[in-house]
């Protein structure tokens, strides 16, 4: 950039805009109510009642006994206190916490092995398949826009359906789209097959962010025992990072042409690999992941 030109390159604006978000987030955190579980654990029952009233819909507690719900929280905390006296990482592998830890690892792994990794390299994939740079870029914008639309849809779905059916349905749809991409990648590449692949990638992003993606964070917070929640979520997230690091090494090699150093030239056929990972994760979820909603 010319020293006399005060304008900023477009790529810098993305980094500058990120500094806007801490201000509203800090304000929201300041005014957010304390967890009623934490308040009851510290003997602040009256404050817990105020918080429960504040975060519930108007009139919610008119027909429901709040004291009974607080008694359930106390009873649950007493049980978890006895089972996890110190709340150490070792306690994550004892008693019912072992089952909770398994579910925590499973839902985080599902994010990685669901098959969405291919869409992160959509531009590289489309260009290597012969699509023009402008078309590949524009198509990637559409694919990325599905992230926001999917999250907005998830706000509606989570209030009407359980976590388990949404996740299983989402994984099934993702698997079908991966199969489509794999088939299109196995035939002669044409403009139609590239557009079809792009449409399937857009559907993957839409469905993932409307089901599996956001719901992982929900289930991950609901599954652990309250006294082990921070440790269990941290461990689950670390397990996610390990899986993600592995796939982030594989995916670029899969979609890159063989002419590139380290490229395997799988292109659309890479979807068959992710289809296998998706089916394994879905099978685990079907037999081992419980419903945590409600």
Set out the fold topology.
Layout: H1 10-17, H2 22-31, H3 36-41, H4 45-55, H5 66-83, H6 96-113, H7 122-128, H8 133-157, H9 163-184, H10 191-210, H11 212-222, H12 229-255, H13 270-288
Most strands sheet = none
Report the total helices: 13
Q: Compute the gyration radius: what is it?
A: 23 Å
Multimeric state:
single chain
Please report which band the strand proportion falls in: under 5%, 5-15%, 15-25%, 25-35%, 35-45% or over 45%: under 5%
Please report the total strand number as a whole number: 0
Enumerate the spans where pLDDT stays under 50 for 5 or more consecutive residues. Answer: none
Structural class assignment: mainly alpha
Q: Can you write the helix and strand succession as a string?
A: HHHHHHHHHHHHH
Question: Which overall shape is indicated by the principal axes computed on the Cα atoms?
Answer: elongated
Distance between termini? 56 Å
Query: Mean pLDDT, as a whole number?
Result: 86
Describe the 3D structure:
Helix content is 69%, strand content 0%. It has 13 helices and no strands. The radius of gyration is 23 Å and the shape is elongated. The N and C termini lie far apart (56 Å). The model has no long low-confidence stretch (mean pLDDT 86).
Summed up:
The protein is an all-alpha fold. 69% of the residues lie in helices and 0% in strands.
Which features characterize this protein?
294 residues; mainly alpha; 13 helices; 69% helix
């Amino acid at each position: 950039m010319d020293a006399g030109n005060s304008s900023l390159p477009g790529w810098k604006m993305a980094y500058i805009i990120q500094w806007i978000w801490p201000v509203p987030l800090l304000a929201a955190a300041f005014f957010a109510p304390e967890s009623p579980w934490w308040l009851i654990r510290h003997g602040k029952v009256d404050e817990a009642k105020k918080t429960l009233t504040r975060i519930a819909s108007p009139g919610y507690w008119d027909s429901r006994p709040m004291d009974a719900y607080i008694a359930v929280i106390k009873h649950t905390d007493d049980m978890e206190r006895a089972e996890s006296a110190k709340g150490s990482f070792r306690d994550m592998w004892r008693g019912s916490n072992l089952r909770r830890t398994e579910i925590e690892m499973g839902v985080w792994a599902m994010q990685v092995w669901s098959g969405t990794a291919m869409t992160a390299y959509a531009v590289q994939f489309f260009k290597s398949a012969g699509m023009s740079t402008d078309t590949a870029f524009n198509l990637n914008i559409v694919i990325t826009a599905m992230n926001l639309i999917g999250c907005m849809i998830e706000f509606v779905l989570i209030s009407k359906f359980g976590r388990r059916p949404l996740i299983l349905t989402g994984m099934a749809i993702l698997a079908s789209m991966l199969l489509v991409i794999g088939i299109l990648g196995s035939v002669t590449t044409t403009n139609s097959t590239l557009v079809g692949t792009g449409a399937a990638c857009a559907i993957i992003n839409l469905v993932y962010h409307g089901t599996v993606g956001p719901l992982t964070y929900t289930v991950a917070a609901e599954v652990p025992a309250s006294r082990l929640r921070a440790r269990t979520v941290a461990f689950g997230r670390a397990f996610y990072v390990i899986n993600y690091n592995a796939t982030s090494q594989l995916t670029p090699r899969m979609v890159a042409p063989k002419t590139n150093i380290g490229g395997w030239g799988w292109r659309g056929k890479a979807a068959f690999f992710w289809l296998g990972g998706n089916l394994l994760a879905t099978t685990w979820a079907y037999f081992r992941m419980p419903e945590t909603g409600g």
